[in-house]
């Protein structure tokens, strides 16, 4: 008699292009999700990787992963709740609308714990934003010219990366 595995879709997210290129954050998530799936009887039938802020709710790969979960009747596996998002209302809405997901670092969470963890994830997002703004203001006071690198270098690099991501996503659809 063979064990029937539960279908799962893996979703991995990092916030910055640098994190995506080094792969370290993604690799740690993949190892955690794979180990959990293997020990808990999940068959990962698809995986989605995204480089995007957790503050944004309209993320292309997440939307695609959710659609595949619904179509296959699969569970969404994430390494940690903040990889799903850093917006309490968004995470609560996913739960309320019947999305079944498991954060492998806390797989037996209940509604109360989910709300508390989502609130902490949102709070951390706000704290990251405040630290970034303070650092930028300090750099300005020191006379650092902000924005020229972005205008001259990053905009060109981002345009090329966007072409690659679009091509990469289309190739996997």
What can you see in these coordinates?
The longest helix has 31 residues, at 111-141. By secondary structure, this protein is an alpha/beta fold. The protein has a domain at 6-120: Rossmann fold (3-Layer(aba) Sandwich). α5 (88-96) runs antiparallel to α6. It has seven helices and four strands; from the N terminus they run βααβαβααβαα. The chain has helices at 17-22, 24-40, 60-72, 81-84, 88-96, 111-141, 148-171, and strands spanning 6-14, 42-51, 75-78, 101-103. It has a four-stranded parallel beta sheet, sandwiched between helices. Helices cover 60% and strands 15% of the residues.
Q: Which fold name is given in CATH as the topology of the domain at 6-120?
A: Rossmann fold
Cα(first) to Cα(last) distance is 34 Å
| Helix content range | 55-70%
**Poorly predicted residue ranges:** none
């Amino acid at each position: 008699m063979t064990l029937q595995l539960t279908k799962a879709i893996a979703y991995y997210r990092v916030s910055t292009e640098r994190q995506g290129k080094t792969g370290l954050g993604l690799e740690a998530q993949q190892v955690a999700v794979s180990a959990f799936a293997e020990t808990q009887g999940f068959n990962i039938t698809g995986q989605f990787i995204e480089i995007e802020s957790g503050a944004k709710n309209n993320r292309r790969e997440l939307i695609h992963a959710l659609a595949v979960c619904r179509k296959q009747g699969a569970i969404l596996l994430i390494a940690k709740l903040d990889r799903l998002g850093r917006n309490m209302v968004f995470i609560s809405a996913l739960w309320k609308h019947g999305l079944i997901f498991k954060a492998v670092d806390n797989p037996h969470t209940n509604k109360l714990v989910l709300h508390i963890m989502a609130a902490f994830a949102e709070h951390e997002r706000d704290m990251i934003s405040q630290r970034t703004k303070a650092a930028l203001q300090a750099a300005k006071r020191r006379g650092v010219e902000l924005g020229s690198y972005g205008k001259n270098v990053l905009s060109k690099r981002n345009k090329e990366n966007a072409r690659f991501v679009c091509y990469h996503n289309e190739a996997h659809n």
